[in-house]
Amino acid sequence: MPASVPLTRVRRDDLAGDAPDVAPWLLNKLLVHGECVGRIVEVEAYREDDPASHTFRGRTARNAVMFGPAGHLYVYFTYGMHYCSNVVTGPEGVGAAVLLRAVEPVAGVELMRSRRSGRRQLADGPAKLCQAFAIGPQHDGADVCRGRGVGLFDDGTSPPPKPLIGPRVGISKAVDTPWRFRVPPDG
């Protein structure tokens, strides 16, 4: 990424919409943590009226961050071994977020590779992304719009005009809901 490209933080107001609307908007934004930068290429939307969402049964200590305000990370542990991260969306009090499923590494690739034990696939899945970016439970609730550490930025690259849309993966409820959005292979 050229140093001359201006980066602006994503605004909280841009994340305060409905998760299925915010999700495709997040495509091509930049996830930044330390020297690691990745372009978001795949996301999934979840909200509290969705049986696949962690908030479907209401607010708990585990999912409290998903109830707002928008612009914070919801980090959770899954399968007893991996972390996944979501960007909270919607108005405060509504349990919604967008799962960061994959990024295309832009900077800090060698560090990502070392965190992923030299594997070629660095951040093409939500758990791989968290491992490559060293995102863990200490980042649950992190403010990606203002805080230090993990941030979301815009370098002027627009979301794709026609993202690939399909059903979410790795879930057992509401599997046909088309809230998975991806950057097409041609950009």
If you had to describe this structure to a student in words, what would you say it looks like?
By secondary structure, this protein is of the alpha+beta class. The chain has one domain (8-156): Methylpurine-DNA glycosylase (MPG) (3-methyladenine DNA Glycosylase, Chain A), CATH 3.10.300.10. The chain has 4 helices and 9 strands. A hairpin with a 2-residue loop joins strand 2 and strand 3 (36-47).
Quote the CATH topology.
Answer: 3-methyladenine DNA Glycosylase, Chain A
Biggest sheet overview: 9 strands, antiparallel
Inertia-based shape:
globular
Q: Please report the first level of CATH classification, the CATH class.
A: Alpha Beta
SS-derived structural category: alpha+beta
Order of helices and strands: EHHEEEEEHHEEE
| Proportion of residues in helical segments | 10-25%
The CATH H-level superfamily is Methylpurine-DNA glycosylase (MPG)
Output the number of helix runs.
4
Number of strands: 9
| Domain module tally | 1
List its traits.
3-methyladenine DNA Glycosylase, Chain A; 187 residues; alpha+beta; nine-stranded antiparallel beta sheet; globular
Fold topology:
Blueprint: E1 8-9, H1 12-15, H2 19-26, E2 30-33, E3 36-47, E4 73-78, E5 82-88, E6 96-107, H3 109-115, H4 126-133, E7 151-154, E8 164-166, E9 180-182
Antiparallel strand pairs: 1-7, 2-3, 2-7, 3-6, 3-9, 4-5, 5-6, 8-9
